[in-house]
Amino acid sequence: FGSAATEIDGRSLLVDTRQGDLMQKVDIFIDKLEGLSTFCNSYNAKAREILNKVDRDHKNDVNWADETSLPFEWDDGSSSDGKTSGRDTYPIEHDEILSYNDVALDQLVTKGDEKHRVAIRTKQSTPLLQHHEILCLKEAVELYWEGLSSYKIEESPQSNRNSTGSNHSSAKSRFTYQRRGNSEAHLSDVVKFSHSQEKTQVTSLVNDLLLNRVYPWIRDAYLSKETTIRPKDWELYVYDSLFIRYNATEANIDAVIGERVGAGQPLHRDLGYVSVNIMLNSQREFEGGGTFFENQLRSLISEDGVPELFDEAAVDVLPLKPLGVGHALVHYSSDRHAGAATFGGVRDILVIFVAAAARNENEKDGSQSTVTTGRAPTWERAARLKSTSRGNCSKCSSIVDHLACRMLHHRLAIGHVPNDGEAWHYLGMAMLEFYEVLQYPDIGNSNPDSIEGED
């Protein structure tokens, strides 16, 4: 494996020299599985099979997104039927891009004098949405929820994406975790329903929001700065978008007297490129809320990597929020974060998960249309490799096979994103479990479903 599968699709999967020695030892360890695992002699073929599956899932999601009512970056916005009609070969140049500020840690990290950027957010002078636009969107969502509760409308078939990421439209949260006090609506379903009610202003507003504000902003602040890809070869699109309501009153219905139960989301990662969080109501209307990032804890780590002793009362690690109503906070989807609990009132947000798809010119007819190449971007490949590592595999007939397959998933994830600490952790856990199996040979031949996983 160390020599054969370290290059897939012409791309080296070896990490840099700082981690190379450790990764070489990992490859030697995996290579010694010969004779124990049924697919150990064809790791390169197995790696290609895994990556092909990841790319198929990516392409399915791109096709699903293309069937919704939300435009891709290169749609021209000319249609009024809920979906844009024309397509440009490259993104349109925008004279005005939203101005933003970096939200960075005070402590400097290893990249010279560069600060670690946790997120960006719109400046006070340039909100993403105006007051009247927020009212328009919130009215549309309320009408959509009313239609759901009275069975006037059915769940959209497109909301059931595929086996790797099903998302049914519902007034109840199916976002990351189902929790009392959380309600949601998929923006694509709201737009489609509004259009069916002849409220075309919602379609126009969402098209303008994405095509003229969100996409140009994300390309300028994030995609244009990528060094491992050619940004012009990638088109931004909405992987999913949710209107989310955190209702603290409802969350506390069953709470013990004297105990406050907030409405929020636990630590998680989003599957996409960047996540855009837009505040839709005033901070005066709720208590708590915001987004907590695991990376905020970096400020508590000393330069030598050792946690510093600190007084809890003196530590100010607070959830981040947009600057006000209509403003946005944006971060990499792969950064672990949590929806901090809303302890009082109601908090409304619009979250847009922006992803990227590779596009090539359609050379067959010489037209300006574009087609998807199907390969997932590096960051998405790594995320999907981790999330599917414990999926059912027809060739994994024993725990040994299953553990070897998991190790290969995480090894490939590290090859794509070498600094992904979560992938390193999962790889280590799989190797530890494999070591335990070696101590009890009879277990190694049992059903893989009987072993605990890293998640």
Helical proportion?
A: 25-40%
Number of helices: 10
Find the structural class using helix and strand composition: alpha+beta
Number of strands: 13
Shape annotation: globular
Structure description:
The strands form 2 sheets. Strands 3, 4, 5, 6, 7, 8, 9, 10, 11, 12 and 13 form an 11-stranded antiparallel beta sheet that branches. A two-stranded antiparallel ribbon has the order 1-2. It contains 10 helices and 13 strands. The protein has 455 residues and is an alpha+beta fold.
Briefly say what this structure is.
This protein is of the alpha+beta class and 455 residues long.
Describe the structure using short key phrases.
alpha+beta; disordered N terminus; globular; 11-stranded antiparallel beta sheet
Layout: helices, strands, pairs:
Layout: E1 7-8, E2 11-12, H1 17-31, H2 43-66, E3 100-108, E4 115-122, H3 131-149, E5 182-186, H4 187-196, H5 200-221, E6 234-247, H6 248-251, E7 263-268, E8 274-279, E9 286-288, E10 291-293, E11 328-332, E12 337-361, E13 370-372, H7 378-387, H8 399-416, H9 421-439, H10 441-444
Antiparallel strand pairs: 1-2, 3-4, 4-11, 5-6, 6-12, 7-12, 8-11, 8-12, 9-12, 10-12, 12-13
Helix pairs in contact: 2-7, 3-4, 4-5, 7-8, 8-9
